[in-house]
Design brief:
Layout (H helix, E strand, L loop, with lengths): L1 E4 L2 E4 L20 E4 L9 E3 L8 H12 L3 E7 L8 E3 L2 E3 L2 E6 L4 E6 L8 H14 L4 E10 L14 E5 L2 H10 L2 E3 L7 H13 L2 E10 L4 H15 L7 H23 L8
Parallel strand pairs: 4-9, 4-10, 10-13, 11-12
Antiparallel strand pairs: 1-2, 3-5, 5-8, 6-7, 8-9, 11-13
Length: 272
């Protein structure tokens, strides 16, 4: 997740896991959406930033949220969530929040929670129902595709390919029209994005899931940058500092290379 301290983003991962409950769907934990302000989002878009297995969608969603004038309109709460308050600039925040830009009719789900998979169904249903109740016509989520380590280092401002999956023919055509998304012909999608896709297909509701490459030795900031650029084409008017994300990706990748170099030069057996 991204924290903003004195105008500077810092990468942090908060691992907050719930014990596996294996509850049947009928006994899934209740997630309450508390509305703070009503905003007209009819015909708009919800961008999902709830992490499930990675931080790419969280980084992307936060980048958009920080780049635009948005209002906090709702918070998500549940007795199954860890007791946590996120502090930004001395102010307490719920760990799962929804911001909106009424002019662009776009909402952003932001969360610092990394929940156990047993919560994914409840979270995805809550996200989907909120989008419908607030008149959204499109939900965009994202994930990653892991690939083998590249034999070359990525160029400074090089963006990787982004693959896309849609829940309907209409959503698929929308992706095709922007011309920069590669169709994922076969494979699988995991986590909350997968559940949003399945529910969208069942209800004939437009859901698009964008998948960025995660190459061994690279950071999720680079994947988030590529996905953010695609989202800006899908939702005109959005803005995100792509160069800033890539710069951070480069810094993290260089740090990883130093760590690996140190490991190769070490003769210590950590498993003795």
């Amino acid at each position: 997740m991204l924290f903003k301290t004195r105008g500077v983003y810092q990468q942090a991962q908060i691992f907050l896991t719930l014990s596996k409950s294996n509850l049947p769907l009928s006994e899934s934990p209740l997630i309450e959406v508390r509305t703070l302000k009503r905003v007209n989002l009819n015909g708009g878009t919800l961008i999902d930033g709830f992490p499930s297995g990675g931080l790419t969608n969280s980084i992307s969603s936060m980048c958009f949220m920080k780049s635009l004038r948005n209002e906090l309109i709702s918070v998500l709460d549940s007795s199954a969530f860890p007791p946590l308050s996120m502090i930004y600039d001395g102010i307490a925040n719920f760990p799962a929040r929804i911001y909106a830009n009424k002019d662009l009719k776009v909402a952003f789900l932001i969360s610092e929670l990394n929940l156990d998979q047993s919560m994914y169904y409840a979270v995805s249903r809550t996200i989907f129902q909120w989008a419908i109740d607030n008149g959204c016509k499109l939900v965009i989520s994202s994930g990653t595709i892991s690939t083998e380590e590249s034999k070359r280092s990525p160029k400074e401002y090089e963006l990787q390919n982004v693959y896309g999956v849609a829940s309907t023919k209409k959503a698929k055509e929308k992706m095709k029209n922007i011309g920069t998304v590669l169709e994922l012909h076969s494979g699988s999608v995991n986590g909350i994005p997968a559940l949003l896709l399945n529910e969208g297909a069942r209800r004939n509701f437009d859901v698009i899931v964008l998948l960025g490459k995660i190459i061994k030795g690279s950071s999720e900031f680079r994947s988030a940058a590529a996905i953010s650029e695609v989202i800006m084409k899908l939702v005109p008017g959005l803005s995100c500092d792509i160069r800033d994300l890539i710069t951070r990706a480069k810094t993290i990748e260089q740090d990883l290379m130093k760590v690996r170099a140190g490991q190769k030069n070490s003769t210590i057996n950590l498993y003795r």
